[in-house]
Design goal:
Blueprint lengths: L1 E10 L4 E10 L2 E7 L2 E8 L4 H11 L9 E5 L5 E6 L21 H12 L2 H6 L3 E7 L5 E6 L2 H15 L6 E5 L5 H9 L4 E4 L5 H9 L3 E7 L2 E4 L7 H4 L2
Parallel strand pairs: 3-6, 9-10, 10-11
Antiparallel strand pairs: 1-2, 3-4, 5-6, 7-8, 7-9, 11-12
Helix pairs in contact: 1-4, 5-6
């Protein structure tokens, strides 16, 4: 997933250069097959490619749940072969209002962000986006990484489908900006709390507000901006 690459580092302050070695990420074409027929290829990193395939198929109305899947072959990380059960059928993904009554502490959210920042591939190369799918009680989480922000969201949802977990009980924290298209994907997966370390947009905020999700930005150093539905955060709920 990464290789050592020689490079020259130049310092404007010291007016000097030096030969260094950097760890640089690889990106590959991941081929997805459905029922023995070629479906598509995605440019991604060679980790969690099975999860990537299932997440991608979810957002394209091919897979809805683990019950739709007969088998998955993934011996070659660059090729994922998905066999669907003959009776499987999926309705088009639609946005629906998310109505859950659980709350989560700010400390649990800060803890999830700390895990993001310790993600191994990101730490080695600096090239990876990171997503963490964390249960609101904090006892279970899944950490996914990819060079593409869309891929890492699809990996997280694919992981949830393969694990058969109730996504309504989880929050998703992300290492990048929470743009409208990414937030829409997460809302389709019915995840009630969406957080990131960076900015969001007015359109993403409007979408989260309309469909009942708690959208949080700039989670860092003991602070966060809660843009929608703050009552799910215990500290706001108790006021």
């Amino acid at each position: 997933m990464f290789s050592d690459v020689n490079y020259f580092r130049f310092s404007a302050k010291e007016r000097d250069s030096a030969c260094k070695v950097d760890q640089v990420a690889h990106e590959k074409d991941i081929a997805i097959y459905v029922n023995k027929s070629y479906y598509t290829s995605l440019r991604a990193t060679l980790n969690d490619t099975k999860e990537l395939a299932i997440g991608h198929l979810f957002f394209h109305d091919v897979v809805k749940s683990h019950d739709n899947i007969e088998d998955i072959e993934n011996e070659d990380k660059a090729i994922v072969k998905v066999e669907l059960k003959p009776s499987s059928s999926c309705q088009n993904n639609v946005l629906e209002y998310i109505d859950v009554n659980w709350t989560v502490s700010a400390d649990a959210i800060y803890g999830g962000i700390a895990l993001l920042q310790e993600a191994p591939l990101y730490r080695k190369t600096g090239a990876f986006h990171v997503a963490i799918l964390m249960h609101h009680k904090g006892y279970k989480y899944f950490l996914l990484e990819d060079i593409s922000r869309h891929n890492v969201i699809e990996k997280a949802i694919g992981k949830a489908i393969l694990e058969g977990i109730g996504r309504e009980e989880y929050m998703l924290l992300f290492s990048g900006r929470l743009m409208h298209e990414l937030v829409r994907k997460i809302l389709i997966a019915k995840i009630p709390i969406i957080g990131g370390i960076s900015a969001t947009t007015c359109e993403a905020i409007d979408l989260a507000q309309k469909y009942g999700a708690t959208l949080i930005g700039f989670i860092r150093e003991g602070r966060m901006n809660v843009y929608t539905h703050p009552a799910r955060i215990i500290e706001f709920f108790q006021r």
